[in-house]
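Colleagues,

Please find the record for the three-part complex below.
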Amino acid sequence: MGSKTRKIFIVLIVLIMCFSMTGCFDKREVDDLVNPIAIGLDKGRNRSIRMTLQIAIPTKVAGGGEGGGGGGGKESVSYTTVEAPSIYSGLNMINTYVSKQLNMSQIKVLVFSEELAREGIEKYVNSLMRGREFRPNSYLLVARGSGNAAERYLRAVEPELESNPAKYYEMVLSAYSYTGFSSNTTLVNFYKNMVSESSQPLAVLADISKFENSDDINMDNSTYREKGRDFPLEGDFKAGDMPKVGTIKSEIMGLAVFNGAKMVGEFDGEETQLQLMLEGDFGYSYVTIPDPIAEDYVVLLSIRQNRKPKRTVEMIDEKPNIKVKIYLEADILSIQSGINYESIDKVKILEDSAEEFIEKDLAKMLEKTAKEFKSDTPGFGKEMKGKFLTWDEWINFNWIEKYPESKFEVDVDLKIRRPGLMLRTYPATGIEVGEE
Amino acid sequence: MEGKVIFGKREAISILLVLICNQLILGFPSIMSNSVGSAGWIMTIYVSIITLCLFLIMAKLYSAFEGKDLLDIGEFVGGNIIRIIVGLLVVIDTVFLISIKLREYTEHIKIISFTQSPVSFITLFFTLGMIISVYYGIEPLVRSASIVVPVVAVGIIIVVAGSVKNFEFSNIMPILGTGPYDIFVGGLPRISIYSGLLPLFFIPPFMGGYKDIKEIGILAIIISSVVLTLGILAYLLVFPYPTSANSVLPFFELSRVLEYGRFFQRIESVFLLTWSLAGMIYLSSGLYFIVYVFSKTFRLKYYRPLIIPFTLIIFASSLIPKSLIEIMYIDNKIIRYYSWIITFGMTLILLVIARLVKRKKRGMAKNGK
Amino acid sequence: MADFKKLMKDIFAFKEPKPQEEFILKEKESEKIDGGEGANEKAPEKKKKGLFKNFFVNGEKKDGDSKNENDSPEKMVYVSKNLDENVNYLKKRFSIPTNGDVVLREFDIVVKDKKIPACLIFYDGMVNGMLINLNILQPLMLLSNLDIKDKDGENNISEYIHRSLVTHNQVKVSREFDEIVGEINFGGCGVFIDGIETAYACDVKGWQHRSVDRPNNEIVIRGPQESFNEILRVNTALIRKILKDEDLVAESIEIGARSKTPCSMLYIKDIANESLVAEVRRRLKSIKTDYIFDTGELEQYIEDNTIMSTPQIVATERPDRVASMLAEGKVAVIMSGSPFALVMPTTNNDFLQSAEDSYVRFPYANLLRVMRVIAIFMSLLLPGLYVAITNYHHEMIPTDLLFAIEASRERVPFPSVVEIIIMEFAFELIREAGLRVPSPIGPTLGIIGALILGQAAVAANIVSPILIIVVAVTGIGSFAIPNFSLGFSFRILRFAYVFLAAMAGFLGITFGLFVQSIILCNAKSFGVPFMAPFGPKTNSGFQDQFFRSPIWKQEKRPDFLNTKDTRKQPKISRQWIKGNKKK
């Protein structure tokens, strides 16, 4: 027994010696760290970038040691902007004057300014993917506008419902599943699409509200005229142009379209919805359809996508011929004209017109991606890829260059399933009092 | 040696699974995708089938030598010299392998969460674990392997199942990857991924008869091929080819994008727990294997005095490679290309010769009569 | 210097281990995988080789006695014919009159006008006085004159007295002094009669003791509410009452050279593995000590590994639990004076099970099991995990929680390791102190400790509130472990995990888990691997492992016990199912 206890004793001593000599290298107390929740990158002077960090102040966010609910909004975060040659060197610089060590593991959004995005963000995305601390599932945003758009946007973020801005980002960016006006543009997705030769990356558009009070609201920046509509529908806006005022200044709507790592154009809200439908990620959303019979009236549908779209790509005369069939389901939310579309014989009319409405927009949007952006955002290349047996054949085929010549055939299959709680709209009864 | 240690089928299979499947956690998926692109999973299946065939041949050859391990067979073939050659080959091969893997585990854990710690600090934990477990012998080791394997399996299943929603079938699409030649001819040396089977030919003295060995081998190959294929398939389905080939830690990358709702994000550190557990079992069984083969080769009575020297050798040689890049090069280009030579090549040759020798002896005996 | 050299040599030089044969519960012949080498060694052979040298060659005490004789030449081995000699010797041996509670009563027996001097000796307070008066003194002093039909009465007075005079149910006749004295020490009454070279020891135990009470520590909601008390025979009777099986053997073994504490080794003769029974017997008999007081001590004498923190023998105060384990093929040891029975061999599973598990319906039992395993992991790892996560793996904390922790730690001056050790220490302190304080103050102290201390510590910014939750949950978790000693062992290991986590985060915890699993898998309890149903995977025939299957499915006894009778119940134990079908 004696030798055994001694052995154990010796092992213990050796252990203690080893560990006391080495020490705790990576140990960082939680309160020795500071957690930025958003990072904004703008174009700086010369070749540097201007980096803005949005840092949550935990005592304010979580309510602090004793008493006092955290004051939401602006007080819970602080900002700092620095100009540096690269992201990591910027962090290093910030570390010198921010008392705690920066820990990037809680970063929720990465905001690039439009200027930077149009120049190309490949090098930044690569370095972000390489770093361990940056999360692959933080969202990539592009802030519209000239100059320091990213900084402007971040400084405008004032969450009202949450004391924690990190939660604001998480919630607002996952809202696409019930609005369809943004998309899941996480860093890892962006990176995958950026490197891939069968699809192109996208990023969510963000901006701050242009209007100070409700009298200023105008529709000048809406895209409805390009689409040949008489009045704007809810999807005909991009971030920043939305006709809204309120305490929440920051806006998210639409997508920035990239070709490679360079931003080439923008999708408005509706195009974003269509993009989601093409990918099969469209959750559900309220969509306004012009009334097929009564002009000037609209019908409101709650549209869901329950099946993945059927996409086929064929090569006809060396040109891709792309066929898409999208399956949608809809519930009626409102029929303003009061026409009895709920009845068996009339529901077809509504379905057809809704299909046609979506098809038209879809064709337009696809044309736009091919001709204007030359960027395969819906990732039809993935379909094409399956037709090849080996990698070399596929690479030599060079899809990215072939895509702009594509022809599109779009087919939407929309079924109206439920009329909501009402089977028919009854008109309001009353006497029309003409103006004398 | 300390009497007879008998352990069951399940323990043997679990330890072989640990020995084979640990590479899933290390660079295996990205190495496979590096060599054949999106067809890595096809190559895994192909290699598994070839390995299975090879193993069946070996099992057939082995059937005449029930209850003997390779060293005994070596002695049977050519006396002490062959035995010592076989033993030394195995020991050197395994020492090389284990020290590279030790460094690889260390580097990976360093990347995952110990960026500031020196390599030797992390290696220390592994080596201490190795020393302690080997000191207690093989029995507790295989037993804890059989307890740990389900835990690690659950960890892998969580990762695979959690990434189902990120699956995209077009990612594995040019179905043959970089081409059938690469898969079916270039993939042949890749049977090295099953080089972990080697200890199987050394456990007969601990186990039952030939049937058991055959059954264990077949089961271990099938289960590990399923695990490896599923793992690499999940990885390739989530990451398209050019992305998938350049990841240092493929499975870690996979677990990083895992999300179960808003709360369970960023849980990859939990897998550090299960993976390093598997790593410790892998390394310790490797060390035990080395020490056991060495002591048996030289007919040493005790293996315990060998533990510390061999650990020191492994520890020191694991620190030789300069960088992770070098380690990955060695792992990818040497271990995964040539380690089959010992496991399959040497064993097969030895078994064939032994068979011939046996036949000759029998013939001589008959003639003599 | 030489010492130092020797020490160094001792440390680094390899010493050949002493050949020791370990006891391993061997497979039965029928079950053996391959009959290759040395089959079952016979138990008696093993006896000689064991860890402890066996002094009692045949399990008799004669050896010991003869040794005693050598020690003191004056000692009387046999009862003398002469009463005076006996009385003198007794006076010396029991230190009369210094020893106040020994009563030596001399009297005469009148047989046919003849007066035979006799004496009684017993300890006051340990005997039932009424029994002595009525059943010993009365017949000897008053009824001895009755005409008793006996031919050779004169010849064999001793036989006569034994057979016809002493109207008491348990009388031991012996020539050996030590045996009689042993009985007297254990509440018997010694009767010495002049002219006879034997003495009588009547069992008149009548000391004050607890009656059979409700269990204090292993409380169940459903199931029997009895627990052992300090009386050996009451305890064995409690078990027999449940098992009602004549194959249940209660083998008597005495432990302690001086105390001769009676113990009872219980097993079911046609279920328990023989070599297991022999091993337990061997270990029990080989204990050489003067006094032994409780099964707690006995446990430490017979367990396999003393240093390992995990207990290897179950101690229980519930007769029903002992009975059910005996029915599985285990061996129990009960000791006089201890309300806890030891059951062995024990595997990791037995510590996770409470007596209630088999009494409640199976879905409930499984919920309880899962809860318990979670509780175990919490009590073992939670503080360690907290330290690891907050010090090394921040990224896995959800953002909101991270900010909460960060905010709460903002004003705490200590590193979180120190913080958690302070709180754990405080908690252990409350626990220990709570046991010691007089019972009326007990609950108050608990409240003061838990509430006020925690509250004040948070208010004073000594610890963060989240940490209080961690420590409290850990504490509660450790109480959910059904076995007290296992809870204890986890309380110790918890600190090891905190240190490991502080050193290297999850890597340290993994290291700890790995080493612990190696040690646990290496451990054996009476030849049975400690992690038995999992460690070496045994046949799944035994359905009461981690999860419990419905009671009718538990057809077999645990495989690792290698019982003689492996089947508990037939394949179809609910015969009424069959009956219904036939209709």
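The CA atoms of residues 24 and 527 of chain C lie 4 Å apart.

Comments are welcome before we finalize the supplementary table.
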